[in-house]
Design a protein that fits this description.
The chain has about 280 residues and is α/β, with parallel strands linked by helices. The protein folds into two domains: about 240 residues, Rossmann fold, CATH 3.40.50; about 30 residues. The chain has seven helices and nine strands; from the N terminus they run E-H-E-H-E-H-E-H-E-H-E-E-E-H-E-H. A seven-stranded parallel sheet has the order 3-2-1-4-5-6-9, with helices on both faces. Strands 7-8 form a two-stranded parallel sheet. Helix 2 links the parallel strand 2 and strand 3. Helix 3 runs parallel beside helix 4 and helix 4 packs parallel to helix 5. The longest helix has 29 residues. The protein starts with a strand and ends with a helix. Bound molecules: nicotinamide-adenine-dinucleotide. The site of nicotinamide-adenine-dinucleotide has 31 residues, from helix 1.
Length: about 280
């Protein structure tokens, strides 16, 4: 079923922008919340020009006060708690975890893990109070279900996405018996601006670091964000919890991890007995 209203974070670019366009095309009123306000406004303007309803608003998902301001602005514009919140904004940093500077650890965990939790704290009680069927969605990654080699050694990113998946699973349990449901999106490689993710690192975490176009990955290696958004929308409208953009890739990573865990549990049972 289409959603009446939605708040999408990180909607100025990539998967978030495509999702906003896609949902607006199905009649959803969309709030595009992003730290890059001008770009979010341009996406909103294009949606409005094609007959949709959209509002761009400033958000730093790593900042609880900014999330409180988003709640105020979005509720004022929509007129009530939203039918859908997608905590999509995400950032990354590379390198082995034991060499990762503390500022990158704080920045990535703040946006990717604490951000969705803060968004849930801000919006879920209002969605429950409204009493309408609604959904809180977290964007994790294929990096949430194992240690995929794609994307390089993005250690703190991978840790944040394992946390985001854990958060979504906990939220699903905590929402049982309410009118709000949870979903988690686990994309694999989608052609977006994520390769230049450090463009948005705030001053207190070391400031922006811009990569040149030579670092841009070959688009042939990824899915277009519009196709990813169409697949995600289909999963959301069907009320699914785990939503993927790719099949086989993630399946292999997940299987390898599950096989290793199964083998460790079988070793335990052989050593101490099934009931130990
Ligand atoms: N592209 C992929 O291959 C891929 C794969 C797996 C998961 N993801 C996840 O999908 C989500 C969207 O990423 P994308 O690939 O579209 O990247 P992107 O860089 O193209 O878009 C991310 C958007 O988030 C915004 N943003 C960054 N920091 C923010 C903050 N603190 N507060 C608010 N907005 C902020 C950016 O301005 C940008 O508009 C992220 O959570 C990312 O981790 C992407």
């Amino acid at each position: 079923m289409p959603f009446g209203s939605a708040i999408i974070t990180g909607a100025a670019a990539g998967i978030g922008a495509a999702l906003a366009r896609h949902l607006a095309g199905t009649g959803t009123k969309v709030v595009l919340a992003d730290v890059e306000l001008e770009k979010a406004q341009a996406v909103a303007d294009a949606i409005i020009a094609s007959g949709g309803a959209a509002k761009a608003t400033m958000l730093d998902q790593g900042d609880a006060e900014s999330i409180a301001s988003l709640a105020e602005a979005a509720l004022g514009w929509i007129g009530h708690a939203p039918d859908l919140v997608v905590a999509n904004a995400g950032v990354g940093a590379g390198g082995a975890i034991f060499k990762t500077p503390r500022r990158n650890i704080d920045w990535v965990l703040g946006v990717n893990l604490v951000g969705p939790i803060e968004l849930a704290r801000a919006f879920v009680p209002l969605m429950i109070e409204r009493g309408m069927p609604s959904r809180f969605v977290t964007t994790a990654s294929e990096h949430a279900v194992g240690l995929p080699s794609r994307g390089g050694q993005a250690s703190i990113y991978t840790i944040s996405k394992h946390g985001a998946l854990g958060f979504a699973e906990v939220l699903r349990r905590d929402l049982e018996g309410t009118c709000v449901a949870a979903s988690v999106i686990c994309p694999a490689v989608v052609n977006t601006d994520i390769w230049n993710t450090m463009r948005n690192r705030p001053a207190q975490f070391g400031g922006p670091r811009l990569l040149d176009e030579a670092h841009k990955p070959d688009p042939a290696l990824g899915l277009s964000s519009d196709v990813a958004a169409a697949r995600i929308t289909e999963g959301l409208e069907a009320g699914e919890f785990y939503i993927f953009t790719h099949g086989q890739d993630i399946s292999e990573v997940h299987r390898a991890r599950a096989d290793e865990l199964d083998a460790a549990l079988a070793r335990f049972a052989a050593r101490y007995g099934e009931m130990a």
